[in-house]
Design a protein that fits this description.
The strands form three sheets. Strands 1, 2, 3, 4, 7, 8 and 9 form a seven-stranded mixed beta sheet that branches. A three-stranded antiparallel beta sheet has the order 10-11-12, with no helix packed on it. Helices cover 29% and strands 26% of the residues. Helix 1 crosses helix 2 and helix 5 runs antiparallel to helix 6. It is of the alpha+beta class. The chain has a single domain, classed as Nucleoside Triphosphate Pyrophosphohydrolase (Alpha-Beta Complex). About 3% of the residues have low confidence.
């Protein structure tokens, strides 16, 4: 019997902004390159694995906002979320040292132009990007929203924390053109409709979190809801139905309006 795949720690950030004209929120989402091994071609939120450099930053408190008593592992998830968001969207959740506000779009673009490509290609470390630009990562801008673990038996498995964050109002973001081939600001309603029509390929966790997020009409309401909720870890259990289909079972108390779901892509 093959050894089960190792579980990698990972972070995903749901960047939110208000669409006041439609009285709904929008999220920054990207289409994964079709040659990417995990979730190829899917519409997803920015995110990826926690790496060793994230842990190095966690050991240097001067480089991030108050961790609120978080341990090194929890800090690593949040730092990875900020790094992956910058790598995959160009949006940088950070403040200039000594400042109480997030950096503006102009400064973010300067840092992106100088460092994003090298960071994505592994030619520089995020620690150097942060320290070299006198930045403090805004970990306090991330609000925990969900915790999912890939089902057993999958070839790649992740222990993923989902975070909400209000996008800086003047940082619009753009995909990197390599790991992702397109990007869009889209409401949960539109993303889910695209999944139903076949316009978008939506992994199961993405779908469930879009449905839950779509119940909140504003960014402030979504963040307040997340701060008050109890997060229940979800590790779906997959079973086959009599007609050859697939079902996923998740804890009802996780707050996803159900326990058993018919699925296509598990991702």
């Amino acid at each position: 019997m093959a050894e089960p795949a190792a579980i990698r720690p990972a972070s995903t950030v749901l960047l939110l902004r208000d669409n006041t004209g439609a009285s709904e929120i929008e999220l920054f989402m990207m289409v994964r390159h079709h040659q990417i091994e995990f979730n190829s071609g899917a519409l997803v939120f920015p995110g990826g694995s926690v790496d060793a450099n994230d842990k190095e930053i966690a050991a240097r408190p001067a480089l991030y906002s108050d961790g609120g008593g978080l341990d090194a592992q929890a800090l690593g998830f949040r730092i990875a979320g900020v790094r992956e968001t910058f790598e995959e969207s160009g949006i940088l959740l950070a403040r200039a040292k000594g400042s109480g506000v997030l950096i503006d779009a102009g400064r973010a673009r300067e840092i992106e132009a100088e460092r994003r490509a090298d960071l994505c290609e592994g030619k520089t470390a995020f620690l150097d990007v942060v320290a070299g630009n006198d930045l403090v990562l805004a970990l306090d801008a991330l609000v925990p929203y969900a915790h999912w673990i890939t089902p057993e038996g999958m070839p790649k498995r992740f222990d993923t924390w989902f975070f909400l964050a209000a996008a800086p109002p003047d940082q619009l973001g753009a995909h990197d053109g390599k790991e992702s081939t397109d990007s869009i600001w889209v409401s949960p309603r539109e993303a889910l409709a695209g999944g139903d029509s076949g316009r978008f390929k939506l992994p199961f966790p993405t779908t469930r979190n879009l449905i839950r997020l779509g119940k909140q009409a504003t960014v402030a309401a979504a963040l307040a809801y997340a701060r008050d909720m109890d997060i229940v870890t979800v590790m779906p259990v997959m079973t086959r139905t009599a007609d050859g289909g697939r079902q996923l079972r998740i804890p009802r108390e996780a707050g996803y309006d159900g326990e058993v779901f018919e699925v296509g892509a598990v991702g």
